[in-house]
Amino acid sequence: MDMNQLTSTFLDACLYGLKLSNIYNSVYLRAFQKAVTEERKGVIEAAMGGGGKGTISYNTVESIYNKWLKNVDEELEAELKSEHFTSLLSRYTRLLLEQRSIFRKAGYPVDYLDRLFDWYVRSHLVFSLIPKESHLAPYDVVYRKGKARLLHYRAFGQEAPTAKKQPLLIIYAPINTFHILDLNPRRSVVRDLLTSDGLDIYLLDWGYPDWNDNHLSLEDYLGYVNDAVIVVKDQTKENKISILGYCWGGIFALIHAALNPEEVRNLVLMAVPIDFSKDDTILARWSKVIDVDAMMDEFGHMDGQALDLGFLMRNPPRYGFDKYLKLFQKTYDSEFVDTFIDVERWLYDTPPIPGVLHRQIINDCYKNNLLVSGGMEIAKDGKKQKVNLKKISVPVLSIIAEKDDLVSPASSAAINDYISSQDKSVLNNPGGHVALCISSNAHRKLWPEVAKWLLSR
Fold it and tell me: Which intervals hold domain AB hydrolase-1 (predicted)?
């Protein structure tokens, strides 16, 4: 082992880590100073009042806290997208990769230690230890390949649908697990669609990839989609089926529809990043500057814990402790508490993403925007085929979260500029990316509208 190189890399990594930490701390301090300034009159009155005791009321403290949090939101949104921050982050991650590479080449069992760390973290996540399957709507597994499964949901109270219904295949993203679409009996997209009395629901579950699946590519995942479509068509005796894709699952759905337009009846795109030149979220900015090739060469996959950390670092106060403060404030609301626990259990049960797939999505989509430029190539039937979104002419419904901080609404809405469809609809929902699945407004208004749209076509 080259100790000089290791020492230099370690010290540089520490330096860049401190620089990144300093940016966060500076944001917190500026946000606090601004909040106190905004609340100065109330603070002074509170400190001078109360018979000279100098006490500050709980309402004043709460007001300062809320102003601070709002200021942090605004400051981080700008700072974490800046060229200064992203260049530091890119260099920092590169140094960490170099460090790991030095240890690996010296013969240290870094892969084994990674697996041990993942096991340790998962075994100590309280929420993840609660069984998930008990909350799910009833289904049958009608297809398996590798870790992937095709689930066919049963109509409630029936072993099978009694009347012919329109088949709908839901393609979930390879990030986290599909359980967010069927969180619990009160917050379930699957149940909303099942009760529409006209839809036959299938869902493609990617399972839990591990180190043995690092080789899986975009073509492999599209192969699963193709197999699922064949199974659904065979079971329902339909020549065409409707497809709903969520986030990266929508990218799979789009590519399948472009390559196989004759198989698709309707296409629903739920918070799908499409034109990546318009995706201006923090994670999109980071994805465009980090060396994904070096990362996948070193790790072989995108680790689930690293994804969790990336989501958290977009706004540590908001996602790290404020939500738990809100939980303690609403412990009297049993439905809120149950849903909170269900979301936390889903949020921190993050499977790894196979390295080849992750590399393709980041490079082809986020960095080079090939999905809309027509430059994306997919191997099909032994030859490369260009993905041409103009070949999509079926009815398309775009579901957009107005406050989505994972996929910019403008990126999703851009689909209508690239397809040939005459029937193009948009449904906007207040709230963020995950709120599409769990908010009361979505279950009350959005999903009945989606079902109505599908059944009318």
Answer: 189-435
Known active-site residue 247: yes
Q: How far is CA 388 from the centre of its chain?
A: 25
Q: What is the pLDDT of residues 326-355, one digit of tens each?
A: 999 999 998 899 899 899 888 888 899 999
Rounded to the nearest integer, the mean pLDDT of the chain is 90
Cα–chain center distance at 254:
17
C-alpha 62/C-alpha 457 separation (Å) is: 50
Domain range annotation of the chain:
1-108, 129-282+349-455
CA distances from 68 to 29, 77, 330 (A): 9, 14, 21
Give pLDDT tens digits for 218-251.
999 999 999 999 999 999 999 999 999 999 999 9
Residue 404 among the catalytic residues = yes
DSSP string, 110-163: HHHHHHHHHHHHHHT-TGGGS-SGGGSPPEEEEEEETTEEEEEEPPTT-SS-SS
Residues 182, 205, 247, 365: which is the catalytic one?
A: 247
Catalytic residue, from 192, 200, 404, 405: name it: 404
Q: Is 308 a catalytic residue?
A: no
Q: Which of 12, 118, 338, 433 is catalytic?
A: 433
- What is the rounded distance in angstroms from the CA atom of residue 246 to the CA atom of residue 266? 15
- Nearest alpha-carbon partner for 174 in 202, 216, 133: 216
Rounded-to-integer distance, Cα 282 and Cα 315, Å: 10
Q: What pLDDT was estimated at residue 248?
A: 97
Residues 6+ apart with CB under 8 A from 163: none
> From the centroid of its chain, how far is CA 5?
37
What DSSP state is assigned to residue 243?
E
For the domain made up of 129-282+349-455, the CATH class stated in words is alpha beta
Determine the number of helices (DSSP H) and then strands (DSSP E) in the chain: 20, 14
Two tokens at 71? 């200021």
Q: Find out whether 179 and 191 touch, Cβ atoms under 8 Å.
A: no
Say yes or no to pLDDT of 59 above 80. Answer: no
Give the pair of three-digit tokens for residue 236. 């329902």
In this structure, the number of other CB atoms found within 10 A of the CB of residue 344 comes to 18
